[in-house]
Amino acid sequence: MNLKGLTGKVSRTAFLPRLVADPIPFSTQKFAQVLHYFSLQPESAASKILKQTMEDCEAPAMEGEARYCATSLESFVDLGVSMLGQNIQLLSTELERETQSQEFSIGEGMKMVGKSEIVCHKMSYAYAVFLCHSIDKTDLYKVPLVGETGTRAAALAVCHKDTSAWSPKQILKVEPGTVPVCHFLARDTLVWVSN
Mind listing the pLDDT tens digit for each residue in 69-122? Predict the structure, then answer.
C-alpha cells in the first residue's frame, strides 16, 4: 500500500494555550471577525481554508458519534479526561524516519489497542485545531509496516464495525451498514485511549 498520510508532510502549527485561544473568534457566525483578526481578505485561499475548518467543526454529529473541536492544548486534554477518565494515553502513528512516498507492507504483530477511543484529526488552521470524535463500535489497532526501503512504522488504523448511520458519500463502493470499514490514520492524527 502507498499510504500518503504516513509519509506526507506533517503540519507544524502548534497548540495555543487556552488564555490565548479562547478570545480568538472561532465560528462561521463571526467569520468577519476571524478575517479581521488574521488580516485576511474574504476571497483569499487562506480564508477559505479557515472557513472550511470551522464548518467541519460545526457540522452535526452522526448517530453514534460524539464530536468536538479542540482549539487549545487545555481543551484537547480536558476532552480526553472528560470522556475517558484520567488513566489515558495519547497515541499516534510512529515513523522510524522521514521518508519519501513508498510502498509499505504489513508486518507481523498487529494488535488491538483500544475499543473506546477518541480520534483527533489535525485540521488546517492558523494554529493547532483538532476535530476529535468517538464513534460507537470502532476498534483501534497498531499495525507494523515495513517500507520498500526498509523504513519501519507503527501505524494506527481504525475499524468501524457499524456504518449504518453513514452517508453513502463516506464509503467507497459499499452500501452503508453492509460491511465494516477499516482505514489507516494520518501521521498527524492523535488518538486518546484508556490505559
Answer: 999 999 999 999 999 999 999 999 988 877 777 788 899 999 999 887 999 999
Dump strand ranges (E) for the chain. 65-70, 88-92, 94-95, 104-106, 111-114, 117-122, 130-135, 138-147, 152-160, 181-184, 190-194
Output the nine-digit C-alpha cell for 132.
476529535
Q: Give 51's pLDDT tier (boundaries 50, 70, 90).
A: very high
Helix ranges (H only) for the chain are: 4-7, 18-21, 31-37, 45-58, 73-84
Count of CB atoms situated within 10 Å of the CB of 94? 13
Cross-strand pairs, 135: 65
Give the tens place of pLDDT for each residue, 126-163.
999 999 999 999 999 999 999 888 888 899 999 999 88
- Return all residues near 146 (Cβ < 8 A) that are at least 6 apart: 104, 105, 107, 152, 153
Contacts of 63 (CB under 8 A, 6+ apart): 165
Cα–Cα distance measured from residue 16 to residue 185, given in angstroms and rounded to the nearest whole number: 24
> Are the beta carbons of 158 and 116 closer than 8 angstroms?
no
Amino acid at 186: A
